[in-house]
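Box 3.1 A note on notation
Throughout this textbook, protein chains are presented in two layers. The first layer is the amino acid sequence; the second is a token string describing backbone geometry. Keep the layers aligned when reading.
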Amino acid sequence: MNWAFTSSGSVTETYAIGLLRNMLEIPSVSYHERDLADYLVAAMTDLGFRAHIDGVGNVVGVIERGAGPTVMLLGHMDTVPGVLPVRPLDGRLYGRGAVDAKGPLAAMICAAAGAVDFRGRLVVIGVVEEETPRSRGAMEIRDTFERPDALVVGEPSGWSSVVLGYKGKLDLRYTVRCPATHPSNPAPKASELAVVCWNALTELLGPDAGHGAFDQPGATLCQINADLTTATVDLSVRIPPGFDVEDLLLGLRERLPAGELQVLNAVTACRVGRADPVVRALASGIRRLHAQPRLVVKTGTSDMNTLAEVWDVPMATYGPGDSSLDHSDEEHIMLSDFKRGIDVLTIAISELAHLPVRSGHL
């Protein structure tokens, strides 16, 4: 038997932790994921996947285990910038991406390899550029892959929680130029118009807007560069399901006496119900490990947003790790939670084998 597997077919704890540590030790800042992709192709091949790198740099691994549904598990390889030494300490494993989101991706790889009783097709994908505005990796998968019968997106939810949905996002840039003039001239200055833009946005969103509630929009002033003659303002608005983006843009443009408002990126909010088959399968796995599953929604965005814009299939987001540590200098994952996450995913995959197969997926 391959040393990576136990006698029952599951991936050994030693192999799983080694896989994650190796992933953490390979830097993979957005746009520079190739070294990690090469490593994962080799590792997944050793675990029994047919693995390759696609045209944009995504790693795709497939395991065929007879007739049945196609279940896709998709996480991202890229991280935000910042060096964080990889080290184990008191049952934790530190490193950039330990939580966001190499931990969830490693758990998916191990769970799929060890789900020996699953009958169907398992597709595990590590995408590029999730931490960038365009999510090019997920866009490529969405545009080139046939829709699966079920989808699990890998992000840190905590091993005993399942994410039902995310707010959407609207990235805006306001630019304005004004003639040079004396500061005492009553004509509006570019810097003043930049402030007008921000104030108009917050006024349009209303007094209840903020990032603390899923059903309310929330705005962030990301960057402002301004003087008397030129100004550039970058704005980000997190938007709940059903939010009228066109009405917001119309109202904001009407309140700006000069300049140009551009939409840099727009991602629709997404949310599934508690009865979604993927949610139920993940919740079942959590209960099997003697915990009460928490079903949550997030005010950020993920590749679930990108895929849900086109794929109307059962889906949810799941992964071990504390999301409050995303991008932080203390980013780490509890190894006990990592192992539980593998077990939950393995159980969920087994339960999803009972899904009906969509026409054309045989």
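The chain has a mean pLDDT of 95. The chain is about 30% helix and 25% strand.
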